Structures are given as structure tokens and as C-alpha cells.
Amino acid sequence: MSNAASSPIRHAVVLAHPDPNSFNAMIARAYCDAVEAAGQEVILRDLYAMTFDPVLKNEERPVRKGVTLAPDVRAELDMLRDTNVVTFVFPIWFGMPPAMLVGYIDRVLGAGTTVRQVQDRSAEGPLGKGHLCAITTSGAAADWLEAQGQTEALRELAGTYLFRAFAMRSSEALHIGDVVEGASSAFIEDSLQRVRKRAASICARVGQELYGTPLPPQLGDGS
Amino acid sequence: MSNAASSPIRHAVVLAHPDPNSFNAMIARAYCDAVEAAGQEVILRDLYAMTFDPVLKNEERPVRKGVTLAPDVRAELDMLRDTNVVTFVFPIWFGMPPAMLVGYIDRVLGAGTTVRQVQDRSAEGPLGKGHLCAITTSGAAADWLEAQGQTEALRELAGTYLFRAFAMRSSEALHIGDVVEGASSAFIEDSLQRVRKRAASICARVGQELYGTPLPPQLGDGS
């Protein structure tokens, strides 16, 4: 039982898409499956299925006298505690994440965080020094987005900025473009394979970092 | 009555801030006052006061078979019809607009717009070939945002991208940084003056463009 004190490595997958049968939902499931195959834990936060409320209330704004956490935010923060990796899965709509995801960041990840903390990089969010991954999809071709200056802007917003704001340990992004209705099964399977590989690589890296091995520590069987 | 067929120039101010007494609310009012002082029309869409729902539903997604407009979106589109200028007023939270504004763009401005239309620049939004203005505030200093690559990313997202996506006639942005609680009245008044000047300059430009004069056409008095 030498490793009994080690807690398992835990991922939270935050999905923001209105269609439970969407390609984004398939991506989230593929990520979850790959994490479990690597022997790590994963929880799925399907924001639409949860009917999460993305609208930040006035009393939730960080002010000098402290901030009131709403019950749904408090419950979500409890859920995220001891999470090592948070992975967002969302489509790009008009250059931005869906309001659902934006509100999750404002209300949950940013709960009570002031501008000064962000500037000082002292805003340790609910994920502590965790890892951040953003998997995004778009109906537009990646090269078209690039020509619009969008991929860089998205990298800044969906990855780097949050990474800096919450002083996380690392951030990375995987973008899948050209997602159209009636995409071929080969395109879908190829894309999901990219997601599984990315999930496996994150699992290995975090395992290495926390336990010096890409595999999770084997707990005793209690005998 | 030679100008009787000319409709008045109309602005819509879309405000997204949870505090009705916020600096953002003051900015929206200052903009509205300046438009009226220029003899043009303005409507204020205070998204929090309207309890606008920013969550795009699955049945609102543009698909090949057409799209269903929700009653609140349809009402908002009716309200925006014949608007020449839309001006967004919002704070930057964690590098993005509030979910409230993001959802307004997705559900109202983007209603039924497909990715292909955006790529082809054939997505003439509800504002037709109108003008777009984004007035943003941040608690962070402008130079700090610049160092984070944020101002460029924001220009892309809050201005250029929407401008391109909806094939609008022009877009411009005004950012007011260093907005902190207890800001001096001189700072506030100076900032509101910048807003009024910007509103007046937009009014003059649109008047010039539509009527060849920065002033609105004088309608007959009916006598």
C-alpha cells in the first residue's frame, strides 16, 4: 500500500454543444474512453444536458468585499476539486465558443477571481496548477480560418489566455476543421482517432509528471 | 416633403452588463444621448434587463432543411430591422465578451446563418450592410492587455470577424482600460466624453453616407 496516499489522476471534460448526437459529443466520448483506457479517471460535464446557466449574476462579480457563490457554481467547484486536467470540447460559432462555455468559464473557473489576480498570475483557479486542453471544431476549413486571423485569435482566447489567467501548468489545443453535415465515416473515425491519441498523450504526460511513470500507480488490493 | 421617403438613421445599442449602475451602463446611456443630440434614433437593448436567454437551442442551428426561429429571436430581429448601426457595449471577462453577448450574436445576429454563407461573405445579417461598433471595458491596463496579445485577439473577435461574417459596411472598436472600482470622477467623465465623441463621429459619417450630409434630412412639418 505504499502508493495508497496517491490519488488517481482525474480529468474533467466540459462539453458545450446543443445536440447530444453531435460530432462534439462523439469527441467528448472518445476522449473519455481513451482516459479510462489509460487507467485514469474522467468526469463528463455536458453543459447542455445539465442545463447549466451561463449568465453571470451581479452578486457573483468579484468585488472587494468578497463574492457570493451561487449553489450551482459551488456544486460545480466541488465536482472539479482534485481534477488534474480540464478539457473543453466545443464548436467555434462566429469566431467564439458557445455562450454556454463562455459562461462556464466566467461563473465556475473564474469564480471570485479579480482582474488584479489575473494580472499578477495569482489567480489559482479551482483546478490549481492543472492542465488545460481545448478541442474545437469548425465547419470552416482550417486554412480559411487562418486567413481570417482566426486560428491565432482562438489560440489566444481559448488556450493561452485562460492558461495565463488561471496560472495553469500547461495548455494545448486541437482544432478539427471542415466539419460538415454528412461528413464521411472515414473523416469522423480519423478525427476521433486524433482525439484518442491526444488524450492518451496527455494521460501519459500527467502520469509521468505526478508519479514518474506514464502508468497510474497500482494500488494494493486491500489484502 | 422631398425627403419624406427617407427613413431616419437608427442605432441599436446592445448592452451586456449585470449591474444596471455599472460603468458600462453609463457608457450605453452616454452613447444614446449623443445619438439623440445628433438628431438620429436609438434603441437600447439591455440584455440583462431583458433577461435575454443566450443559450442557442439545437433547433436553432442552421441546417440544410432550414431553421426555426424562436419567438424571442424573431421579436428581436423585428426590433433590429432598419437599423443602420449596431453598437455593442460590454466588459471583457477572461478575454471574452460576457456569455450574454456571445449568445446574442449566436442567436440573433447569426440567426440561420450557415458557415458557408460566412465563408462566402453572403451572410447578410439582420443589419444588412450596416455599421458595427464595439465599445469594451476592462479592469486591466490597455498596455497589459497588449502584452498578452489580447487587444489584437479582441479586435479580431469583437470587430473584424463579426464585420466579415455578416458582411457589414464598417466596424470600429473603442476600448477603455483601467476601469476599477472607485475610479475618479475625472476618469469617468473623460471616458464618457470619448464615447460621446465617438457616437457623434459615427452619426456624422452615416449621415454623410446616406444623405450626403452629416445632419439628418429635415422632414416637412406636414403643413
Helix content of chain A: 40-55%
Order the strands across the largest sheet of chain A as they lie in space.
Answer: 2-1-3-4-5
What is the molecular shape of chain A?
Answer: globular
Query: N-to-C terminal Cα separation of chain A, in Å?
Result: 10 Å
How would you sum up the major sheet of chain A? 5 strands, parallel
Organism (chains A, B): Sphingobium baderi LL03
Domain Flavodoxin-like fold (chains A, B): 12-198
Family (chains A, B): Belongs to the NAD(P)H dehydrogenase (quinone) family.
InterPro entries (chains A, B): Flavodoxin_fold, Flavoprotein-like_sf, NAD(P)H_dehydrogenase_qn
Write a brief caption for the model.
The structure is a homodimer of 223-residue chains. Chain A is of the alpha/beta class.
Molecular structure report:
The structure is a homodimer of 223-residue chains. By secondary structure, chain A is of the alpha/beta class. The first copy, chain A, has a single domain (10-57, 69-211), classed as 3-Layer(aba) Sandwich (Rossmann fold), CATH 3.40.50.360. Helices cover 41% and strands 15% of the residues of chain A. The first copy, chain A, is built from seven helices and five strands, in the order βαβαβααβααβα. Chain A has a five-stranded parallel β-sheet, with helices on both faces. In chain A, α1 links the parallel β1 (10-15) and β2 (41-46). In chain A, α1 runs parallel beside α7. The radius of gyration of chain A is 18 Å and the shape is globular. The termini of chain A are close together. The model of chain A is unreliable at 1-5 and 217-223 (pLDDT under 50).
